[in-house]
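User: Okay, second chain of the day. Same drill as before: sequence in, structure tokens out.
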Amino acid sequence: MMLNKFYVDKLIENALLEDINYVDVATDYLIPEQQEGTAQFIAKADGVLCGLDIALRVFELIQPDFTAEVFKHDGDELKKGDIIAKISGKTKTLLKGERTALNLIQHMSGVATATNTAVKIVEGTNASIADTRKTLPGLRPIEKYAVTVGGGKNHRYNLSDCAMLKDNHVDAGGGITNAVNTLRKKLGHTVKIELEVRNLEELKEALSVDVDIIMLDNMSCDDMKKAVEITAGKAKLEASGGITDETLRAVAETGVDIISMGAVTHSVKAFDISLKIIK
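Assistant: Same drill. Structure tokens below.
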């Protein structure tokens, strides 16, 4: 799993503290301390699994000696009814960790599934699917990890990764040429410049100042095809803005290199997974 262990543990600990303020009034008063139990993670729909290790880590932090038998792994395609994993430990552990574990694995699997759907739609074209910074605060690392599990690629992680000039930057910075030239004088040699353009005239100006990546913002497919012809490989072209699964194939067939979709993180539906105690 390509995630920082310290981040994962802190995320889980904060989630558990949010869920168990000081006592679980149902579990702690009902279940004997010595009672043991076994539960199964079960897929309730078809999709792509993501976040199992994090879900299991929830129970490990509550009870370090809990055990798990794993049948599926991140990136595996699930069918409704598949048993993903079986976990055993104190019944209290299973009950206290259930909601936190499910919240994480359902959300991450939802992101991976949505991304994988988009990736399959554009198969056979030049385009790759990328995420955006439209992520839930505090969850960006796991959401971006889930995108890669679904077959997508990560856009910049944060504002420090790439100098991306959007319309407001350009308007506030005195236009495309002035903004790019001013910025280039101050950037280190390892930092790329991406520029958002709104029409073909701005595209031509962007090419004249040699930016690395050009984002075609809310352009029609016809204009994107023209942009690909005009650019002729001089810069990477990224399509963005209001792209859905229904319009995705047409956008990919314009010849753009990247299609960034905020919807795979900010509007994703949780993937249905249950955790059932075996009687």
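The chain has eleven helices and twelve strands.

User: Thanks, on to the next one.
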